[in-house]
Amino acid sequence: MDSQEVNILTLPEDVIIPIFQFLPQFEVLHNIRLTCKAWNHYSRHGILWRRIRAQDFIRATFRIENFMRFLCDISHLVEEIVFDVEQIKHLQKNQFFFSRLRSLKIDKAHGRLDSDKLSEYSLKAITRLYPALKVLHLKYFCFDFDMTCCPSDLKELVVAGWILGERSKYKHPRNVGEHFMNLTHLGLLRCQLINQTVLALLSGLPCLESIDLSSTKYDHYLKDDEKIPDKHCSRRIQKVVLNNMDCEFFPHVFVYILVSARESIRYIDISNSNQGNLTSPCLHNIAEMCEQLDTLVIGNHDFYNEYLDKACFRLLGPDVNRLNRGIRDVASKNQHLSTIKMNFVEANIDDETVLHVFQNCTKLQWIEILGCESLSDNTLGSISNGERLHVIKISKCKYVTPAGIGKALQRCSRLRTLHVEDIGTIKHILDRKNFRIINYLTTLSLANCYELSDECLDQIAICCPILRSINLTCCHGITDVGFVQFVQQCASITEIILNDNQEYKIGLTDHAFSEVANFRNNLERLTLGRFSKITNEAIHELICKCPKLTKILFCNTDRLWEFDVVITASKLDMTKAEILEFTQTLRRELEKLHIEQEDVCLSGFVSAIRLHRDCLSRRNKDKLFTDWDEASLPMD
């Protein structure tokens, strides 16, 4: 053992540093330096600290004050730093000079609401210390905000929650645009604006290459001028994201961008955008103007409640036939199209339209179809140039059968990702004719395939030797025996999703997870549903015995909740008292996540246990420590 340790300690720098790069930053800083003084100077190597995320360091054993002192020592190395808005005051107080900092990202504080605020003066004072800053993300709610307080030579600016008041002190939006003459990416997320503001802003950004207006709402309280400016916006725009936009916004903004940058646009996302207005641009306009289009995303896949389902025919105009004609036009005239995502809640797309896409898009590599009730098996069997397809996702298509999916697979020899949700049994997909084809699958989603059995899982393990991720949401037919055999046979699996609902509960017990924990596996992420039968003891066993597990997710919880666990390599040397103490602590924390079974309303929160493994600190006396008290747990 001593000779092995000496050999490790005498490894050259070009070997040690890449090893450190694979470890979490906190472990490199906090544990490696305690392990061996010979590695002390390696722990501050510049390449390890180019990107810093403050949330990864701030815990019970390493508070914000300690982090700021360390940040002062490495300030000349940092190129990107991510802070919560509530932590930025420490950065402002210390006034560190980051000579190489290119990216500053300020996120909304965990668990806080609209009280998060950073003054314009403070932001200007902070950014003045970063001469090389090119990327600035302000993802807290910037209600009262003058964007000209940001550095003028930014390349990328993302602002969330910007609202322009009627009696605003701000400069004219065109002047705001002219302030950022070198800006190439602009993101205005969840903002509340008017056409005049957005159009004027775009007209003043000559170098813009990407625009993201996701979830931007129309402010009905302000007087608006919908006239499109005579001056074109940037002709360099390649990516346009206008999802979840109001119909009052969409026609004017999209037409302006389309007319100005028609020759350069490669990516368009207009999903969930209400285009009920008759003046809305049709898809055939995209087909006529965007000859270089590579990716098109359309649909209303985020609208799952009953009221919005009824409105889905209005999303792309009241005339459904016009929608189908528009998709055909895009497929016929855009020869470079490699990705098309058509995700609808109801049957807006007819079978002939999908067939037309398959036959005309010869360079197609990625296709998603959701909610096409008329899609048939014959159409799936008519895929041309299937050897180019890498990703197929088909969900909620009423008349598609496993036999049809099998026909599609026979034409797709290089498929890497297959999503076939809500399709029943998959025995035809696992037909012997498809064995050679699905050998290359790395991702397989079988969510809501209620007839999935242990036999099917066994076939998947045999047919997919390099499978890394599988989604078994609501596959309630699998048992402990079948699940354990699958994990043991499919050694390459790194992610398993076992979400469920009240009607289709996955019945895996502690026995299955105990067997998985004791078997040498490569599992990295495990997702559990609300009605999972797993106990705290089984979670503890997974944490301690799965060598590569980094995250356990709990879906549909009633609160947003997460905490960290740090485990050393010597965890097997823990005493019984230490194990008992940890198990009891874990049980207390998981009880805070407990949901009453009588509560039938599903919440959309996803909670997480994040695992950090310290592989090198064998001499560290702290065998296992947690930061329960500083985990920002939700209040009861």
UniProtKB/TrEMBL annotation:
Q: Tell me which SMART domains the record gives.
A: LRR_CC
The F-box domain sits at 5-52
- Reply yes or no: does the keyword Calcium apply: no
SUPFAM superfamilies named among the record's database cross-references: F-box domain (SSF81383), RNI-like (SSF52047)
* PROSITE patterns, per the entry: FBOX
Q: Which GO biological process annotations does it have? A: SCF-dependent proteasomal ubiquitin-dependent protein catabolic process
Which Gene Ontology cellular-component terms appear in the entry? SCF ubiquitin ligase complex
> Which superkingdom does the taxonomy of this entry point to?
Eukaryota
What InterPro entries does the entry give? F-box-like_dom_sf, F-box_dom, FBXL15_LRR, Leu-rich_rpt_Cys-con_subtyp, LRR_dom_sf
Keywords per UniProt? Ubl conjugation pathway
Q: What is this protein called?
A: F-box domain-containing protein
Source organism of this protein record: Dreissena polymorpha
